[in-house]
Design goal:
six-stranded mixed sheet, alpha+beta, isomerase, Ketosteroid isomerase, 44% strand, Steroid_delta5-4_isomerase, 28% helix, SnoaL-like, Nuclear Transport Factor 2, Chain: A
Length: 142
């Protein structure tokens, strides 16, 4: 793996993070390939294509409101035209009473180099579950 490629992907992860925190849906979607396939911890089992994922991101941004995402333990593996980054993230947003709530999830983004640069072709967010109750574990922490 080239340190240059790894640095490019780390810069993209940081730019994606800043853009998500800023809440600009058009800028967020610029990181994704038109044919992205995404798995998220909430709502639908999978999102196929940028249009479907855009709708989901719009709902996520409404939920987040003045919330944020904080990344922890970002790891990158990369080759010349394919890369993957994984991390733990803490996502927060206001509940119905306006109080901030947060929890950790696990994130993975797969990038492919294209003619105009790197794009996310697959993204996956998940959260641990208690197998006995089938409920998400919101208080898990790294």
């Amino acid at each position: 793996m080239s340190n240059t490629v790894e640095n490019e992907i780390r810069a993209l992860v940081e730019a994606w993070h800043a853009t998500v925190t800023g809440g600009d849906l058009d800028r967020i979607m610029a990181f994704y390939d038109d044919d992205v396939v995404a798995f998220d911890a909430i709502a639908t089992l999978q999102f196929v294509g940028a249009a479907a994922y855009r709708e989901h991101w719009a709902q996520c941004l409404q939920f987040m409101g003045e919330g944020s995402i904080v990344l922890h333990s970002v790891t990158v593996q990369a080759s010349d035209d394919l890369a993957v980054a994984w991390f733990i993230d803490r996502c927060s947003g206001p509940n119905e009473q306006g109080e901030m709530e947060s929890g950790y999830t696990r994130g993975t983004a797969c990038y492919r180099r294209q003619g105009d640069g790197w794009r996310i072709v697959h993204e996956h967010f998940s959260m641990p579950i208690d197998m006995q109750t089938g409920k998400a574990i919101f208080d898990a922490a790294p």
